[in-house]
Amino acid sequence: MNIEAIQEEIVDEFSMFEDWMQRYEYMIDLGKSLPLIDENYKTEDNIIKGCQSKVWVHAELDNEKLVFTADSDAIITKGIIAILIRAFSNQKPQDIIDANTDFIDEIGLKEHLSPTRANGLVSMIKQLKLYAVAYQTQLN
Amino acid sequence: MFNVKEIRKDFPILKREVNGKPLVYLDNAATSQTPKQVIDVITDYYQNYNANIHRGVHALSQEATDKYEEARNKIQQHFNAAKAHEIIFTSGTTHSINIVANGFSSLIQKGDEILVSAMEHHSNIVPWQMLSERTGAVLKVIPMNQKGELQMDVYDKLLSDKTKLVFCNHISNALGTINPIEEIITKAHNVGAAVLIDGAQAAPHLVADVQKLDVDFYAISAHKVCGPTGVGMLYGKEKWLNKLPPYQGGGEMIAEVTFEKTTYANLPHKFEAGTPNICGGIAFGAALDYMNKIGFEAIANYEYELLEYATEELLKIDGLKIYGTAKNKTSVISFNIDGVHPYDIGSILDKLGIAVRTGHHCAQPIMDFYKIPGTVRASFSFYNTIEEVDVLVAGVNRAKNMLL
Questions:
Q1: Most distant CA pair in chain B: distance in Å?
Q2: Which stretches within B174-213 are classed as H helix?
Q3: B347 in contact with A, Cβ within 8 Å
Q4: Contact B194, B164 (CB under 8 A)
Q5: In this structure, which long-range contacts are made by residues A112-119, counting pairs with CB atoms below 8 Å and at least 24 apart in sequence?
Q6: Which 3 state secondary structure label does DSSP give B37?
């Protein structure tokens, strides 16, 4: 499935929730079920700066597709990462670079998008895209 | 008579809703809310006598100057400074501290020692590190114990004739500990060191008498005492302020300027370069008036009740731990729940209309000391209520159930 289709799917899922409680509970569940990053990758280098909670992201290329694994010490942040990974992992670097991120707004997480917001959703997206740029350069 | 219901009517913001819930504002240690009495002063300034001060011959300028200087006198009286020109208007505590740190660059030599407490805000650590780097002075830390109290026996040992400056907050922003500053000041003076106390967190809860304390410098921000942001004060003993060089060059701070040489203005103008935050200064005075009218003793008693009740109720939650359990503390509760990140609790409380602070509270060394990433901090003011404490406790329970 391409990024756009996955994003639509996520938006559909979130549209079923009636209030913030359900959205948060869902994100918390997602956070709890996120496959953990290999402990070896939880290094200082892999920490995304600008987050109040710690966030580690690791990327590796598998058959010209970029696979992300990640972790956080805060569960809601982890839920947000799980959503991002679902949308962007296992995709071609160029597609990740080109992808827009409006779906974040559509699923009611806009408040987390503010650059000053301490969980740094913006930093996370930026980091995923930076990885994509780096690997795309490698592929070229 | 202290009547919280009546007091709350003074604060328009307390009527608003957040995320569809009545606002429960428990982030008072970050900034206090503003009563209409202060908002009215701000409006009045811009509607009736906005003008630049100390230089115009016209009526508006004179009026603004009078009000601004009247505010300085109010602040002087509030802190019982000996002279009005010992009160320097600044943009806030950080600016105040930087004036002193910068000024001491010329008074400190290689090998001299500066002592800071282990529970300082970053704004109190960084300027001294910069000063140490510039001068080759050594920065030493007064440690604290598990309760979040300074280890005064270690302080005694750290003091020597090499100590030139001691720097400590009156009350810790992250833990609420009230530090024994009388003792800190007396002992520093015994070895000839100067003392700067950061009063930012103390000012909303108690009145510091700078003469009685015999403190050399005392700094606060107006926005912690129901005033506006962007204005604060540095109190300095006249003899010290005369010794320190100006911090910034500009208009207002000069006596005479030629291209060869400039002579500086007298105190306090030497440290007040450029057009100041005139309206802010006047509103700062009005904010102190407002708090004094309620009375600091009544405020302290009431806040103590809130602190006691909140501590008791929060501790009923399984797995909740409070950081900062000093015998002398103010209405600040920093806490965590086992297995839950403070950020997650804060996010859910926000959804419930409850404003708390999460994170390291600009006091990372304290978090390192407890080996935690941060805490949730609820800080109470005299306009908070027992009912709001109940809302907080219910919110924390709800967050805990969702997260664990």
A1: 71
A2: 181-190, 210-213
A3: yes
A4: yes
A5: A112/A80, A118/A51, A118/A52, A118/A53, A118/B343, A118/B358, A118/B359, A119/A51, A119/A52, A119/A53, A119/A74, A119/A76, A119/A77, A119/A80, A119/B343, A119/B347
A6: helix
Q: Which of B19, B343, B348 sits opposite A118 (nearest CB)?
A: B343
- The 3-class secondary structure across B291-306, one letter per residue, is HHHHCHHHHHHHHHHH
In a 10 Å sphere around its CB, with 0-12 CB exposed, 13-18 middle and 19+ buried, how is residue A5 labelled? exposed
Point out the residues of chain B with pLDDT beneath 70: 251-252
Judged by CB atoms closer than 8 Å, whether chains meet at B343 and A24 is answered as: no
What's the burial of B133, exposed, middle or buried (CB within 10 Å: 0-12/13-18/19+)?
Answer: exposed
Least Cα distance to B88 among B2, B6, B175, B210 occurs for B210
pLDDT tens sequence across A13-68: 998 988 888 888 998 998 888 777 888 888 888 877 656 778 888 999 999 999 99
Distance CA B111, CA B89 (A): 32
Query: Which H or E run contains A84?
Result: helix A75-88
* Cα-to-chain-centroid distance, residue B378: 16
| DSSP at A43 | S
- Helix residue ranges per DSSP H, B224-295: 238-243, 278-294
Residue B362 annotated in active site: yes
**Which of helix, strand or coil describes residue B231?**
coil
- Element spanning B320, H or E: strand B320-323
Using an 8 Å Cβ cutoff, are B175 and B118 in contact? Answer: no
Rounded to a whole number of angstroms, the distance from the CA of B352 to the nearest CA of chain A is: 10
Nearest CA in chain B to A112: B347
Give tens-digit pLDDT for B187-234. 999 999 999 999 999 999 999 999 999 999 999 999 999 999 999 999
Structure tokens at B148: 């979040």
Count of other CB atoms within 10 angstroms of residue B21 = 14
pTM of the model: 0.91
Q: Say which of B19, B341, B403 has its CB closest to residue A53.
A: B341
Which of A20, A54, A74 minimises the CB distance to B351? A20
How far does the CA of residue A65 sit from the closest CA of chain B (Å)?
32
Closest CA to B159 of B134, B204, B193: B193
Q: Which residues in chain B are contacts of A25 at CB distance < 8 A? A: 402
| Calpha distance B51→B194 (Å, rounded) | 38
Nearest to B211 by CA among B73, B79, B78: B79
The number of angstroms, rounded, from the C-alpha of B78 to the middle of its chain's C-alpha atoms is 15
